[in-house]
Amino acid sequence: MRNFGLLGNNIDYSFSRKYFSEKFEKENINARYRNFDIASIEEFPEIIGTNDISGLNVTIPYKEKIMEYLDRLDSHAARIRAVNTIKFEADGSLTGYNTDYWGFKESLKPNLRSHHQKALILGTGGASKAVAYALKLLNIEYDFVSRNADAGFTYDELDKSSIRDHQILINCTPLGTYPNVEKHPSVPVEYLSEKHLIFDLVYNPSETRLMKLAAENGSSVINGLRMLELQAEKAWEIWNSQP
């Protein structure tokens, strides 16, 4: 039996374990998927040393910290500087990949319209790096929004002009995730319109507070479920690819 899993902290909610466990059962794949919930990235060598692992997914807070433990990065992960998939090579080495950018790009593309030219990325964590990389590949300009002024806009600086100038808003923060479903990023939603596309990486609940408020103003809205499904399938493809 092949062993796969998710590396992270406080990951009982994990999408990946449920998704892959159901996939293995449905497709009669002789494998299992476990959560490796560790308090520190320094526990990683022990995890791989005491478990026969064929592949790992990586989630917060280790998508960037994990890189120092890997032997190489694929070209996309090297540019993004964040890893969410690890392939265990036949020679025992570890290669880091990023499939978040792929899942985001492919789930965003069908919803794009000609006027969707600029985006605001809410948050500056690991997921936002993959989102920014995907937007570059799609030739969409973007600005970051964070609580400090080091990168792009602060939330306090968002106004009618900046919202109208950016037709895509992407929430890369955990705000709005169950059980804190009433929370949402502090953006002036009253300036959203039918020209806006809101992509919330949160998938639980399926309609976040941000999505609901945006939809009430006529905006198109997407949650992060399809992105997660696509990135998971891309990870599976990587784990099963030949050198």
Kindly summarize this structure in a few lines.
The chain has eight helices and twelve strands. It has 243 residues and is α/β, with parallel strands linked by helices. The chain has two domains: 2-98, 3-Layer(aba) Sandwich (Rossmann fold), CATH 3.40.50.10860; 102-226, NAD(P)-binding Rossmann-like Domain (Rossmann fold, 3-Layer(aba) Sandwich), CATH 3.40.50.720.
Write up this protein.
The chain is an alpha/beta fold. It has helices at 15-26, 44-50, 75-80, 100-108, 126-137, 160-165, 209-216, 225-239; strands at 2-8, 31-37, 55-58, 72-73, 85-88, 94-97, 118-122, 141-146, 153-154, 168-171, 197-200, 220-222. It has two domains: 2-98, Leucine Dehydrogenase, chain A, domain 1 (Rossmann fold); 102-226, Rossmann fold. The chain contains eight helices and twelve strands. Helix 4 packs across helix 5 and helix 4 crosses helix 8. It comes from Christiangramia oceanisediminis. Keywords: Amino-acid biosynthesis, Aromatic amino acid biosynthesis, Oxidoreductase. GO terms for molecular function: NADP binding; shikimate 3-dehydrogenase (NADP+) activity.
List keywords for this structure.
elongated; six-stranded parallel beta sheet; Rossmann fold; six-stranded mixed beta sheet; alpha/beta
Based on Cα principal axes, name the global outline. elongated
Structural class by sheet pairing and helices = alpha/beta
CATH C-level class of the largest domain: Alpha Beta
Mean pLDDT: 95
CATH homologous superfamily assignment of the largest domain: NAD(P)-binding Rossmann-like Domain
Largest sheet: spatial strand order: 2-1-3-5-6-4
Give a count of the beta strands, DSSP E runs of length 2 or more.
Answer: 12
**Beta-strand residue fraction:** 15-25%
Parts with pLDDT < 50 across at least 5 consecutive residues: none
The radius of gyration is: 18 Å
Overall number of domains = 2
Major β-sheet, in short? Answer: 6 strands, mixed
Measured as a percent range, the helix fraction is: 25-40%
Order of helices and strands: EHEHEEHEEHEHEEHEEHEH
Head-to-tail CA distance between termini: 21 Å
Corresponding CATH architecture of the largest domain: 3-Layer(aba) Sandwich
Tally of helical runs:
8
GO molecular function, one term: NADP binding
Pfam family, one: Shikimate_dh_N
Protein name: Shikimate dehydrogenase
Domain Shikimate dehydrogenase substrate binding N-terminal: 6-86
